[in-house]
Every structure is written in C-alpha cells, then in structure tokens.
Design goal:
By secondary structure, this protein is α+β, with helices and mostly antiparallel strands. The chain has one domain. The chain contains four helices and four strands, in the order αβββαβαα. A four-stranded mixed beta sheet has the order 3-2-1-4. The longest helix is centred in the first third of the chain and has 35 residues. 19% of the residues are buried.
C-alpha cells in the first residue's frame, strides 16, 4: 500500500511539473506576443471542453492571436505568470479593440467574396 501511495505521489509530482512547464512556455509566448504587438496585451480564457482552454490575446495595436492549453488551470496560470489583463468575457470594449484584416474577412465570408473555401 505504501508503494502505491508513493507511486501516486510521484505521478502527481510529474504531472504538476509538466503543467508548470506548459504554463511557463505559454507565458513566454504571451510575453513575446505582447512585445511584438505594441508592448502589451490583454486576454480572455475560455473552456474548450476536454481539449483544454483557449487563450485569446489582443495586442496594444489591435492584432490578435490565440493559444491553447491542455487545461483551464494551466491557461489561468500562464496568463497570471505573463501578467496581462484578463477579461471575463470577450465582448464590449475588449472585442472592439480587435483589428481584423483581409485574411479574416475572406475566411468569414469564404467564397462569397472570392476568398478561400471554409472547408
């Protein structure tokens, strides 16, 4: 029984270490995004179900991007490490800051305006 408990604790430590590494890697990517898009960024974390969580980032210049974490907890840890402002919802003034370009518009309209198919 002691061996099982010890093995479980070892797996738990390894899992935490892996989660910490993923959060650190995501925080580094968030920092890089912020630096390359005006010096700061804001974000929003949303659930993706079993796949994890999506971190939507909006840079100071209005450019946006996203990252995916394997869990909501890891995503929250990453944005906290990065020190960005996190919004509860993606709406209102936060959503209005997003600047969409020709690529996004063509993807939204698809072949209706001569853009690529949305397949």
């Amino acid at each position: 029984m002691a061996e099982t408990k010890q093995a479980d604790e070892s797996r738990s430590r390894a899992s935490r270490t892996k989660a910490d590494r993923q959060a650190a890697r995501l925080a580094k990517q968030i920092d890089a995004f912020a630096r390359s898009h005006g010096g700061s960024a804001e974000g929003q974390v949303s659930y993706l179900g079993q796949r994890g969580a999506r971190i939507v980032l909006v840079g100071e210049n209005g450019e946006w991007g996203d990252l995916v974490a394997t869990s909501h907890e890891i995503a929250v840890q990453a944005v906290e490490r990065a020190g960005i402002t996190v919004h509860k919802d993606f709406d209102g003034a936060f959503a209005a800051r997003v600047r969409t370009g020709p690529y996004e518009w063509s993807r939204m309209a698809g072949m209706q305006i001569g853009g690529p198919d949305n397949d």
